[in-house]
Amino acid sequence: MKLITAGESHGKTLTAIIEGLPSHLKIDIEEINYYLALRQSGYGRGSRQKIESDRVEILSGVRGGQTLGSPLCICIKNKDYENWQEVMSPESCDFTKRTLTNVRPGHADLTGMIKYNQTDARNILERASARETAVRVAAGSVARQYLRALGIEISGYVKGVCGVIDPHIYPFERLLEAKKEPLFMLDKDIQNRAISLLDELKKEGDTAGGIIEIRVRGLKSGFGSCMQYSTKLDGILCGALMSIQAIKGVEVGLGFEVANLRGSKVQDEIFYDGKFYRNTNNAGGIEGGMSNGEEVVLRAAMKPIPTLMKGLRTVDYNTKEAVKSASERSDVAAVCAAEIIAESVVCFALADVVSQRLGGDYMEEVLNRYAQL
Fold it and tell me: What are phi and psi of 71, to 5 degrees?
């Protein structure tokens, strides 16, 4: 299964093409739109989320609510494009308006301008923007429906915001409750402390990041491989999470904590009672690069949004003079959006791994093969 995306932050549309979907997969468009709405929600978001409400349009690959087996093409129109057409039109535009040369720390601006020989950072930031993740959420929602048909579920919640951490471990069934909360956190007292901190940061013109936990339930053992480094499941899933803008660290299971513990406290001992099982899941459901049948547990660390309303010290790319960086957005925190995006990229990466092992040209064939594992 392959995904390719296209589109700029303030361009006409965001587009994705998915290859490798079997035929007869039922597609629920409103579920895709539900996850797109969740991506735009969460305490601390800025004004753009009020400008446009994302909705997906399927252009090809589906007929009568079911996939055909051909490439599926989806798009999300940027409603704000009408306010940017003079600047962003593919046909003809005014390059002198909204030019950005005060390169922003923490963004792709400076490195991208050097790499692609540009004099306007807008030619970099429009594609590097996290706005691109909207169409990845849509594609991930399609993959989620593929996995759910097999009995595989993906969910998550926000575990921490700017140092305010929830230390609790929750059963998978409770994770959906997080989507009803303003910060996707499950402990209301901890969430209220985080909200108060975000309010303070907003007054100061500062921003926050956070920690996201993603869990996968229902994945049978043996997905991924120990035979080649590029096919290890943890490497694939961690790579997918690291591809999200602003994610700077990923953990599997105990993650970095394993470095602080004795080996006897880390390894998941194996037992047998009609079937193999473990009483602990410190490995996070992955051993030797393969799923072991336990819940897959992943955590991702999101850095604070690099565009601060008070600006940061930088340099004008053209004049080389010291200046304050420009502001392109006003979010204080986008950790809830990152949680939905993280779920979505894990869905797609996992669907790719599953489909590679199962094959199948139509869903009935895929379901039969998964049942036999």
Answer: -55, 135
Alpha-carbon distance of 97 to 338, in angstroms, equals: 31
First and final C-alpha spacing in the chain: 20
**Which residue matches tokens 């999300």?**
76
Q: How far is CA 281 from CA 78, 155, 174, 262, in A?
A: 43, 17, 18, 16
Task: Supply the pLDDT for residue 47.
Answer: 59
Confidence category of residue 50, pLDDT binned at 50, 70, 90: low
Give the residue ranges of DSSP H helices in the chain: 29-39, 48-51, 85-88, 109-116, 122-128, 133-149, 188-204, 233-242, 263-266, 335-358, 363-371
Measure Cα distances from 142 to 17, 172, 173 in Å: 11, 21, 22
| Tens digit of each residue's pLDDT (9 = 90 or more) over 248-295 | 999 999 999 999 999 999 999 999 999 999 999 999 999 999 999 999
φ/ψ of 60, rounded to 5, equals: -160, 165
State phi, psi for 16 to the nearest 5 degrees. -140, 145
| C-alpha separations of 179 from 35, 39, 218, 298 in Å | 10, 10, 21, 18
Measured N-to-C along each axis, helices 29-39 and 133-149 cross at an angle, to the nearest 10 degrees, of: 130
β-partners of residue 75 are 15, 57
**pLDDT value at position 330?**
66
C-alpha to C-alpha distance for 166 and 188, rounded to whole angstroms: 10
pLDDT digits (tens, 9 = 90+) for 64-82: 999 999 999 999 999 999 9
Asked if the model's pLDDT at residue 319 lies above 70, the reply is yes
Give the C-alpha separation, 148 to 152, whole Å.
5
Say how far apart CA 93 and CA 116 lie, in whole Å: 20
Is the per-residue pLDDT at 48 higher than 60?
no
Whether the model clears a pTM of 0.90, i.e. scores above it, the answer is yes
**Distance, CA of 310 to CA of 105 (rounded, Å):** 13
CB atoms within 10 A of CB 204: 12
Write out the two tokens for 82: 């009408």
